[in-house]
Design a protein that fits this description.
DNA polymerase, domain 1; about 400 residues; hpI Integrase, Chain A; elongated; 3-stranded antiparallel sheet; mainly alpha
Length: about 400
């Protein structure tokens, strides 16, 4: 039987059963609601009722499902399908905006006004249109999944225009600013941590998850194959975690894990910048002892938290007198943008830049096949030289 098809059969006890095909459950089993009647004619009438209920959005399983109930089921399925950070973000959106606003509504009763009510709640709370846009996208994904599993959701609620996301003000540090930052961190024992961000283009998770066995001083190379991430517990007492299918994760301690980058392009070996080699070598002799071999752990040797790492980055900007043009601190991701900007300013081919940063696209794949270590090392050193020259000229921050 296909979706919406049905049948009428007689049981051994003489009763007649009307049964309809109504999609799938969240556990992956078929949903086949049925009605038992005394006569064949009554069973046929029941079959017509089942089909009408399915078409009009009434819950043919005998209960009407609310948005809240469905979203909780959907998140459980998502925990096996999407990466932990995506699950964390979507869970937050569902529980903070969608459920409090329209969680009591039935799936089959939803209207475009309910969708707009959800995004308006985000705006009323002072959040950006980008957050409102993403909230609506999460709601739509959940509702489309409900439809695939046999629930009725009015098609018009999937046709509501989304709020336009705000134009991002993210940018790279200017060369004089990058020079000031490097001058400031050069006096720090772990200054190599920030050189990795500004000149090597390494992501925060890649830096915090880097281990000494992935640093080859002789070959002057860094193997960027793992990232530090805190995973959500599935059962804290049993110490099990929500890990999606096909996801590689190595537990360190507590909720801390080393995880694989989300794409193959994210796994890369990058030549060690000349300006990185010596500070990192000195740091190896001074770094806190970590039983996991982490390069930049806490003073206790435990994995460093992303929050503390971000706070240090903001504090370093204050010390160096560096700020974004609108006055806010630069984000750590903007340090990564700075690497790309410096390389581009140094005349490095965009394909090589993509290979260094590990961006995922067909062009990036081509870059991995054609770019050799000598070219990448030369590119990184040219970018760094721009900053060193700026520092020697005693730049002023605009």
């Amino acid at each position: 039987m296909g979706y919406g098809d049905g049948s009428v059969t007689q049981r051994k006890d003489g009763k007649w059963v009307a049964r309809i095909e109504a999609g799938w459950t969240s556990k992956g089993t078929r949903r086949r609601p049925s009605r038992v009647r005394d006569t064949e004619a009554a069973a046929k009438r029941a079959l017509r009722d089942l089909k009408r209920e399915l078409l009009t959005g009434q819950e043919v399983t005998g209960r009407k499902v609310s948005v809240k109930a469905w979203c909780e089921d959907w998140l459980k399925v998502q925990s096996r399908r999407v990466r932990p950070k995506t699950l964390q973000t979507d869970t937050s959106i569902v529980r903070k905006w969608i459920v409090p606003t329209i969680g009591h509504r039935r799936l089959g009763d939803l209207t475009p006004a309910d969708v707009r009510k959800t995004t308006e709640a985000v705006r009323t709370a002072g959040r950006s249109s980008t957050t409102a846009n993403y909230t609506q996208r999460v709601l739509e994904r959940a509702l489309r999944a409900a439809i695939r599993e046999g629930h009725h959701v009015p098609e018009r609620v999937l046709m509501v225009d989304k709020p336009a996301p705000e134009v991002s003000d993210r940018t790279a540090l200017a060369v004089p600013q990058a020079a000031k930052m490097l001058e400031s961190v050069s006096a720090l024992p772990d200054g190599s941590r920030w050189i990795a961000a500004l000149l090597q283009g390494m992501r925060q998770g890649e830096c915090l998850g880097l281990t000494w066995d992935h640093v080859d001083f002789k070959a002057r190379a860094i193997d960027v194959s793992w990232q530090l991430q805190s995973l959500k517990y599935a059962d804290r007492e049993r110490e099990t975690f929500l890990v999606p299918d096909g996801y590689e994760a190595r537990r360190l301690e507590g909720a801390w894990h080393l995880t694989r980058p989300k794409t193959r392009q994210g796994r890369r070996v990058i030549p060690m910048l000349d300006w990185m080699h010596d500070p990192l070598l000195v740091w190896r002799g001074e770094a806190p002892e970590s039983r996991h071999g982490l390069v930049w752990p806490r003073a206790s040797g435990m994995p460093q938290s992303a929050k503390v790492d971000r706070e240090r980055w903001r504090a370093l900007q204050e010390v160096a007198g560096v700020a974004h043009p609108n006055g806010r601190p630069y984000t750590l991701h903007e340090a990564r943008n700075t690497t790309a900007s410096l390389l581009l300013a140094a005349g490095v081919d965009p394909t090589i830049i993509q290979a260094i940063l590990g961006h995922s696209s067909y062009v990036v794949s081509q870059g991995y096949m054609t770019v050799d270590d000598a070219m990448v090392r030369d590119a990184l050193n040219r970018g760094a030289q721009k900053v060193i020259e700026a520092a020697r000229k005693a730049p002023t921050v605009p």
